[in-house]
Structures are given as structure tokens and as C-alpha cells.
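User: For documentation purposes, I need each entry recorded in a consistent format: the amino acid sequence on its own, followed directly by the corresponding C-alpha cells. There are two entries in this batch. Please keep commentary to a minimum and don't merge the entries.

Assistant: Recorded as requested. Entry 1:
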Amino acid sequence: MMIAAAFLAASLVPVAQAEVRGAPDILVLGDSQLSFGAGKAFVDLFARLSGSCGLASDVTVGVIGVRSSTLLSWTSKGKAAKGAICDVDPKWKVNAGVYGSLSQGENPYVQIGQGEQFQFCAPERSPLEAVFHDGYYQPDLVLMFLMGNATDRWADNPEAALQDVRSFLADLPEGQPCIFMTSAPPFGEKSVRQRQKAQDHIEAAFAKAGRQCSFVPGFTPETVAENMGNAANFRRHASGKVKDPYHPTEAAAQKFMALQQDAICKAVARQLSP
């Protein structure tokens, strides 16, 4: 009878008070570049790095990329600001792609707020707070990978970048190892230049706000040279003209990760060192 009672009590524990199924050692969170190719590339990257860089040989990785989400939408309690994460996409009816230990089988697309593994939309806390609330996820390392829709905000206003970083750090559990990485360069030169400016400001914001997170720049001379103006790295019309200049293909994301592998390894080792 006592065993049965204990089992019943355990079954009644809310999902958000126990680590969810498939919870990974490394949790990668970010925007739609993860859904369009970089998510799979991150899983492959950490498979190559397993057993090195301070990682266990059996390290698990989970990736969640949420459409046009920004750092502000991940850290806001306001319904409007976090709508990019919590609202159902009107066209596709789902708003995220998941990979690795959190994969949903053949179909990687999910709706945040639906399903046991993705309950990030409590009204009283930000999505990022909900990720960690009461041990819902307990990763050894969290890696944020995004920039996209925050480009103008950060490029035009360094103080807004600093505000976003401080909110992000405040929502992390105390002592949580983390890496912040800006996403891969787009196709167009004008967009690259604006995002480079945004990266400069968000990198400076992390340096000013504190060293809890390691910063890995996604825009380097090598990654810009690989993507800017290189139509082969982006989805194209039958004519060959680029139709999506902001999301590198999966093959291009694999090239990007290969170029970034050493920097990511160093950041992981720095975060996981005793």
C-alpha cells in the first residue's frame, strides 16, 4: 500500500518540477537558423567533440530553435514580447525545430507550450526561466545561438544590448555554465555589415555585464568569407537566385560549425573546467 501511495504521489508531480524526458547534458537554444540547418549541425559537432573539450564521451545534446525569437523574447514575462516563442505560427501551426535528445522522430517540428518537453510559456515567468524552473531542464551547459531579429535593436542601441544581456544572466540559475554565440552570417553584404555591428555591441555587453558566459562570435573573417555573396550556401529558386538570404542550408551550417569548432571547444572547456 505504501509503495502504491508513493507511486501515485510521484505521478501527480507537475511536469515542471521534474527533469523532462530527453533532457540533455548540453542544451542549445536559439532562433530559426537552428530549425533551418544549424540544429542538426550542432548535434553533429558535439558528437565529434565528445570525449574532448571537457565533455564526457557519452554527452547528450538537445537543440530547440524557435522561429524569429530574440534574446528579449526569451527573457520577457510580457505576452507581446514572448509571443515569438509562445504563439502558434499562423502559417505552419508550429514554431520550433528540435534535434538530438529532444527529437520527435521523423518530424523535428513542434509548438512551444505544447507537449511535455516544451512547457516554456507560464504567465508568471519568462520562457528562459521556465526552461530551468524547478529542475525542468538541468543541463551541464546551455548555449544560446541567435541574433537575427535583434540585429537592429543591438546595432542601433548598445544600451539595449546591455539590458538584454543583464536580463538573460538574471534568468539563468546561479552558477549555470553558458555560452552565447551569434548566428551565422547571411548572404547580403548590407545585412552582414549591420549584424557585424550588432555583434560588436552584444559582445561588449557581455564583457561589461560579467563573465558568467563565454562569448563566441559567429561573425569572423572566415565565416563571413564563406557565406557573404556565396549563393551555393543558401536556398535558391530554380533560376539560381537566392530566395532565403538569412538561413544557410544544412550543408552550409556544417561548414560554419567546422570553422567554429575550435572556438566552441575552447568555450566549452572554459565553462566546464572545475
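Entry 2:
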Amino acid sequence: MFLSIINSIINSTIFWITSAVISAFYCGWYAKKHDDSWGEWFVLGAFYPFFISIPAVIFCTKPVIK
């Protein structure tokens, strides 16, 4: 029972760390692609869950009008 709880905690921690890294790099890349602040979106992507940060960067990054 105790080992099951520890295993569950470790698995959820690994999941959240992996998703934070992926969403941070995705948000930074997407913002840079649209000439927005790369670092700001990278940090927000790292600290907010992916289901919040990825839609936020997609809908809030302003497209470049040439």
C-alpha cells in the first residue's frame, strides 16, 4: 500500500515535469514564430499546466501583419 502511494506520487511528478518542459518549449517556439516575447511565454509555459499555457499562447500571441 505504501509503495503504491509512493509510486503514484513519483509517476505524477514525472508526468508534470515532462509536460512543463514540453509546454515551455512549445510556447516559446510559438511566440518566437509570431515575433512575440519568447522568454515571457517560455516561463509561463513552464509554470502553468499545459492545458492552460498552450491555448493561452495560441490565442494571445499576436500575428505579425506585414
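Summary note for entry 2:
The mean pLDDT is 86.
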